[in-house]
Amino acid sequence: MSLRPGTVFLTDCPARLAIEIIANKWAMVTLFGLSEGPLRHGELVELIGGVSRKVLTQTLRRLQDHGLVARQVYAEAPPRVEYSLTELGRTLEEPIRALTAWARDNGAAVAASYDSASTNET
């Protein structure tokens, strides 16, 4: 891959689309949450913590639209809906786990650098 101007991250570049999809913090957390298997909406809300039902719904729809999450509706009373990763969504498990490990190992250093920089600005 070349880093010359005009060769990477063009408007229609697949890498740019991928980054746009996963750059959303709720998308990454939702995909990670579904990596252990199908979950219902309420279970995801509890698992993720801090996400509103509305934002989770929007996130799930966006991930569905991009083919990363499947929505299964069961013909029961009351209706039961479960979300799971598609085969395509499963291909993101390893990169998400790697990024999570990086954050666990380096998060304190990043936070300290940020705190130091913001202290120096004042």
TrEMBL record:
SUPFAM superfamilies: Winged helix' DNA-binding domain. InterPro entries: HTH_HxlR, WH-like_DNA-bd_sf, WH_DNA-bd_sf. The keyword Oxidoreductase does not apply. Keywords: DNA-binding, Transcription, Transcription regulation. Residues 13-111 form the HTH hxlR-type domain. One of its GO terms (molecular function) is DNA binding. This is HxlR family transcriptional regulator. It comes from Nocardia fluminea.
